[in-house]
Structure to design on (123 residues):
């Protein structure tokens, strides 16, 4: 039993071209995907430097509070974007008891340099 690529003699012209094209695309795909992924994070003209961006997670008691807080964060330019994730369940210990509450999650994307001001605003 022979495993591997068929010989050039067994492939017809179109099949050989398709095989070569597939191999070339596969070789270059990894680098392309890696580059696209890094550039997507750096957003257009900025150059991404490790450690310059942060993500913060904040829970809110309801949608109204979440929307007001998210809008204020973006209006004050403390973050580029705030995602609101509705209806999460939080399980935590409070005063020696295990508690469970429905909350709304804010996922906040910002510059690391703005984290102290963001924390102060949220408080």
């Amino acid at each position: 039993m022979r495993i591997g690529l068929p010989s050039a003699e067994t492939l017809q012209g179109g099949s050989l071209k398709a095989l070569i094209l597939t191999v070339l695309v596969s070789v270059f795909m990894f680098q392309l995907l890696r580059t696209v992924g890094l550039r997507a994070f750096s957003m257009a003209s900025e150059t991404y430097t490790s450690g310059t961006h942060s993500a913060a997670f904040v829970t809110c008691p309801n949608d109204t509070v979440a929307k007001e807080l998210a809008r204020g964060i973006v209006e004050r330019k403390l973050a580029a974007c705030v995602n609101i994730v509705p209806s999460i369940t939080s399980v935590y210990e409070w005063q020696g008891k295990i508690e469970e509450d429905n909350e709304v999650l804010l996922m906040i994307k910002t510059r690391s340099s703005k984290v102290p001001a963001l924390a102060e605003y949220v408080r």
Remarks:
- The radius of gyration is 25 Å.
- The mean pLDDT is 80.
